[in-house]
Design a protein that fits this description.
With 120 residues, the protein is of the alpha+beta class. It has four helices and seven strands; from the N terminus they run E-H-E-H-E-H-E-E-E-H-E. The chain has a single domain, classed as Alpha-Beta Barrel (ADP-ribosylation fold), CATH 3.20.170. A three-stranded antiparallel β-sheet has the order 1-3-7. The chain has a two-stranded antiparallel ribbon with strand order 2-6. Strand 4 and strand 5 form a beta hairpin.
Length: 120
C-alpha cells in the first residue's frame, strides 16, 4: 500500500530553477542565510500570482517566474502548520530551512514546471 501524497506548488526565479534542474528535478536547493523558511504553497493560482507579479519584477529572479508542482509524502507535512498570508486563498507551509533536505527525501516523483512568466 502506498503512502498518501500531497501536491504542492512553488514559485521560483531563474537561479533557483537552475539548481533544481541540476538535481534532475528531484530536490530543492538549501536555503540561503537570508531565507529562514521554505514556503511551498497549496494552490497553483497562488504560485502563479507570485511568479507573475513578483518574480517578473525581481532582478534576482532574472525577471522570470516559474510555477513548479511537486508531490510530498503527506505524513511529513503533518508536522507543519498551514499559514494563511493575506488573502484566504494564500496558503502555504512554513518549513524551516534546516528541514529542506528532509522534505527533499520525501518528494515523490519529479518536480515539474507548469508555467513560465517573464517581464514584458
Amino acid at each position: 500500500m502506498s503512502s498518501p501524497v500531497k501536491t504542492l506548488y512553488r514559485p521560483v526565479g531563474q537561479a533557483e530553477l537552475d539548481l533544481i534542474r541540476a538535481s534532475g528535478f528531484r530536490a530543492f536547493a538549501p536555503r540561503l542565510p537570508h531565507q529562514p523558511i521554505f514556503y511551498p504553497v497549496l494552490s497553483e493560482g497562488y504560485a502563479t500570482q507570485i511568479a507573475r507579479d513578483w518574480n517578473t519584477k525581481d532582478a534576482a529572479s532574472d525577471f522570470t517566474g516559474y510555477v513548479l508542482r511537486f508531490s510530498v509524502l503527506e505524513e511529513f507535512l503533518n508536522g507543519y502548520e498551514i499559514h494563511t498570508v493575506g488573502d484566504s486563498r494564500h496558503q502555504e507551509y512554513w518549513i524551516p530551512a534546516g528541514d529542506v533536505e528532509k522534505l527533499n527525501q520525501r518528494i515523490v516523483g519529479k518536480i515539474e514546471i507548469l508555467s513560465v512568466h517573464r517581464r514584458i
